[in-house]
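Look at a sample.

——
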Amino acid sequence: MQSKQTNSSGEGMRPETRTLWARTTLRVAPEKYCLVSLPTRMLSEAVRMVAKEDGRFAALIAEPDEVSLTIRDSVWETSSLRRRATAESGPFHAITFNLDLNPAVVGYFAPAAQRLAEAGISIVPQCAFLKDHLLIQEADLPKATEVLKKLIADCRKPRRPQSGAGPGSST
């Protein structure tokens, strides 16, 4: 139980990670999104669909078993690809951790994933080169936003002294 409390306050986090979270802001896309699984043969059509999004959030992952597409609901509802989807889920909202990260950073995402899991919130991580993103079920958006804002606020608070580092200690 002690470990959970320490991690939830931000105190047990690596100092570098804490500093990054203290600089993070959230950007919540107002649009609803759909997460879709398509057969691999639909890759070209999915790429064309994402290309039309022109600066809006969208994600495309091609792998041997599927093409996974995250796209605005309003676009998906009218898409000719819809009848070819093997699965779809949503509605989601996209939350962007609005901080450019070096891909070599270790452990940045973990505190958010841990706190959201502790709050019973399912996440679909979607990472880009510069920024990390989450898909959150629409019904969970207010709670998820609250949890993430608290994480950021906790990381902005001054750190408490380590036990044994108080007055009279030899360190």
